[in-house]
Write a structure and sequence with these properties.
two-stranded antiparallel ribbon, 11 strands, 9 helices, globular, single chain
Length: about 325
């Protein structure tokens, strides 16, 4: 099982020195990957609720510094040498398909093959409107077509495509990505996200705290995994082709011990309990897990990362 941590690309620790120190020390401590989030702008007024908190309040809503994802990924790649970088997640419809393919291929080439493309369709209509994307209602279709476009451009010497959101032929696209197939981790917990994973993804990458589709207990997650495996077979693929990953946004004392159905909540309680959860997830087939590890300063974040690595992750 691989373990990752969230790189601070927003908030008070996203300055170049703190960000560089956290990701380089995370690599030295022994983490396998870091994650980089994606928002271009934060609307001052939102109609929809944030999907990953019970209150619906969006973290960082009050504003503050926040980097563009792909630029931040490039910076992190330049400050590390072996740490894998996972986009967590790219809001795919925010960027044109061909530009997305080129940006990712360039980063993968310059990082010598260290990019995992975590993807999602997005949830914030106002952000889509500010960026000037395709219609918000078409975000699922845009995402699926972008996946087709990037894979065509990454693998073919003479790429060509004809669709609703992209059309090209007779072009050069060099250098291509170092990885013959950049891993695509599909985020989201909904039915469409599961079907997209089953049909197109290399791994499923859910968060357990979505109030509409909670995956915060082991039985709930096991049920969802079984559904994914059925959908994968229905799509004509071997379920072994689709990996499992999982993101924790909180751990330990920050979480209630019990979920709303009375079952034990994943990631809650003592270090020993968390170790047991991670072992159970590994037994289920989860190959990668990442965490938000906090701290008020870069020194505190690094100390917490080291402590968590030694006291928990090393014992899984």
């Amino acid at each position: 099982m691989q373990f990752g941590f969230g790189a601070p690309v927003s908030g008070p620790l996203c300055g170049p020195r703190d960000l560089a120190r956290i990701v380089s020390d995370g690599e030295a401590i022994g983490y396998d990957y870091c994650t980089v989030s994606d928002h271009v702008v934060i609307p001052r007024e939102l109609e929809a609720k944030y999907p990953y908190s019970d209150t619906g309040e969006f973290p960082g809503r009050a504003g503050g510094d926040r980097h563009e994802q792909m630029t931040a990924v490039t910076f992190v790649a330049a400050k590390t040498s072996k740490l894998r970088i996972v986009t967590s997640v790219t809001v795919v419809p925010h960027r044109p398909p061909v530009l997305t393919a080129k940006t990712l291929a360039t980063i993968d080439f310059l990082s010598e093959g260290r990019i995992t493309w975590g993807i999602g369709v997005g949830w914030c209509r106002e952000e889509f409107e500010a960026i000037g994307t395709e219609p918000f209602e078409e975000r699922g279709a845009v995402t699926d077509e972008t996946i087709a476009v990037v894979r065509e451009m990454w693998r073919n010497d003479n790429p060509r495509y004809s669709g609703k959101y992209a059309e090209f032929s007779n072009i050069f696209f060099e250098p291509r990505s170092v990885q013959k197939r950049l891993p695509i981790w599909v985020g989201g917990e909904s039915g469409p996200a599961l079907r997209r994973t089953a049909k197109l993804g290399d791994a499923w990458y859910p968060i357990g705290t979505n109030p509409k589709m909670r995956l915060d207990t082991l039985p709930r997650f096991e049920t969802a995994v079984e559904r994914l495996r059925k959908l994968t077979r229905d799509a004509g693929r071997d379920p072994k082709e689709v990996g499992l990953s999982y993101r924790f946004t909180q751990l330990g004392a920050a979480l209630p011990d019990k979920a709303d159905n009375g079952d034990r909540r994943l990631g809650s309680g003592s270090n020993e309990a968390i170790i047991g959860d991670l072992r159970a997830l590994e037994e289920l087939g989860v190959g990668a897990v990442d965490f938000n590890i906090g701290g008020d300063t870069a020194e505190a974040v690094i100390a917490n990362m080291r402590r968590f690595r030694e006291e928990v992750l090393a014992k899984v």
